[in-house]
Specification:
The protein is α/β, with parallel strands linked by helices. It has one domain: Spore Coat Polysaccharide Biosynthesis Protein SpsA, Chain A. The chain contains eleven helices and 13 strands. It is an enzyme of class 2 (transferase).
Length: about 300
């Protein structure tokens, strides 16, 4: 029998951490989860779930916290609203309202206290069990034409262990990410990760290849996370656990590979990038672009220095 960790069919589950407080977007996120902030007319977290489903992962576990009930409501049926739209004959909006509940099997577990991404992933252990799984962070949206997650799943099936997504960043940005020390493999877009450093100073970074918010993890990561002490900010870092796995042999949960991603990524974790994302998505919408793009050009010309 083929080892499940090396089977293309072995990965069926996605974990989406969504327990953060969203302090960068206060006061908007005082009562509304940051994951529910809209990108035009669809919450950011729906794009993430759609990406997981598009990669063949139909079982999605949300790691939530207090005041995140609206996420559960969004992926549930809304019978009264659906009936009101049906009576009006508004089939387009009815399809839009039903779509989130029909995407995947969505499950929820609460992270009792915000103790870092590593702890959030550890909360998924009982649901995931002894099989590899994907982790998708809601702050990073990947262009819908990209096949990053599918490629990561392919690499994990071929090589085992864990896989991270790596994107080259400017030197002044490396301190915002976990950065990887890498060595080449036989594939041009795949590297072997030999070390990971969480948010290094620019002069101490092992490379400019930063870990972005997509991971495919071997189940051995849970055992490592249980033994990982809190790091920067008193949080348990997933990067620290992956660093340990990068040193291990295949029968111990290693190695760790990276997929070099050069496609379109949208960072919605801060206000400026969030606004740029909304504008880009609006400009790409056929139902909005004809009106919005000419207005945007005129508006930009009228700005000081435009």
């Amino acid at each position: 029998m083929m080892d499940k960790r090396h089977s293309p069919l072995g990965i069926t589950k996605a974990v989406v951490p969504a327990a953060g407080l969203g302090t960068r977007f206060l006061p908007a996120t005082k009562a509304t989860p940051k994951e529910m902030l809209p990108i035009v007319d669809k919450p950011a977290i729906q794009y993430v779930v759609e990406e997981a489903v598009g990669a063949g992962l139909g079982d999605v576990l949300m790691i939530t916290g207090r005041n995140k009930r609206s996420i559960e409501d969004h992926f549930d049926r809304a019978y009264e609203l659906e009936e009101a739209l049906r009576v009006k004959g508004d089939t387009e909006r009815l399809r839009g309202v039903r779509a989130p509940s029909e995407l995947a099997q969505v499950h929820y577990v609460r992270q009792g206290e915000p103790r870092g991404l590593g702890h959030a992933v550890l909360c998924a252990a009982a649901h995931v069990g002894d099989e590899p799984f994907a982790v998708l962070l809601g702050d990073d949206l990947i262009g819908e034409r990209e096949a990053l997650l599918k490629r990561m799943i392919e690499v994990q099936a071929e090589r085992g262990g864990s896989v991270v997504a790596l994107m080259e960043v400017e030197p002044e940005q490396v301190s915002l990410y976990g950065c990887a020390a890498i060595e080449p493999t036989g594939d041009g877009d795949v590297v072997r990760v030999t070390d990971l450093v969480e948010k290094p100073a620019a002069e101490a970074a092992p490379s400019r290849w930063a870990v972005i918010g997509r991971y495919v993890c071997a189940p051995e990561v849970f055992g490592v996370l249980r033994q990982t002490p809190p790091g920067r900010g008193g949080e348990i870092q997933l990067t620290d656990a992956l660093r340990e796995l990068a040193r291990r042999k295949p029968d111990e949960g290693g190695p760790v590979h990276g997929v070099l991603f050069r496609g379109q990524r949208y960072d919605t974790g801060n206000k400026a990038d969030y606004l740029r994302t909304v504008v880009e998505f609006a400009c790409a919408r056929p139902d909005l672009a004809d009106d919005f793009v000419p207005w945007l050009r005129d508006f930009a010309r009228e700005l000081p220095g435009g």
